[in-house]
Amino acid sequence: MIPLxxxxxxxxxxxxxxxPGAAAGIDIVVHRQRSxxxxxxxxxxxxxxxxxxxxxxxxxxxxxxxxxxxxIRRAETKDGLRHxxxxxxxxxxxxxxxxxxxxxxxxxxxxxxxxxxxxxSRGRQLILTAAWRDDEILVRHAYLVARGCARLEYSGxxxxxxxxxxxSLVGRAxxxxxxxxxxxxxxxxxxxxxxxxxxxxxxxxxxxxxxxFKRSFGGQPVRRYDCTVPATLRGRIWLPVRDxxxxxxxxxx
Length: 253
Description:
single chain; alpha+beta; Aminopeptidase; 2 domains; 10-stranded mixed β-sheet; 7 helices; globular
């Protein structure tokens, strides 16, 4: 369980159908990416994509689209990339967050949740990876690992102000990094690679492009659920207050 301090309560995250057990001081349990919703809980459905890492390496690669395999081969043979796979993440969070935040500002998306990253790192459930060329990091990934599954939580690269050749290099490096991450996770007996969600609404070019990128690795679409369950009286009181505050905030935006 990953404990997280909220405004007035302590949340505890559990992942992939993990049983929360007895957790002292946890007011609200958040079940992330369950295979089925919990009855009478606050449940939100998500679409994602899973790659089966229990298959043979050749079979995993065979499911990739032809152009995806070509990009990985070219990155492997011609781009001079180096793979960094970090399981002892505590001392690397600031540099990861700074890199990701630069990417997020370019893309106008949420910055890295440093409190969550620190909590996942303390729980030994966080893995950070990077694709290097010479002394430059081209792409970074962050994974939550639990119950034999690795979920892509963050993926960032900074190339929006670069030329087309550099952009193509980063695109190849990103595919290469996903593939090499899969191979290292497979050696750790991780059986599933979760792509961190898919957009169900593909009406914008950016969303359609992100989904197309993920689908180029094959994989199977899956439906998962985030379920929120109060564990204490404080949690039961706080949840409706939190929900009302969120509705008000969303109405103002």
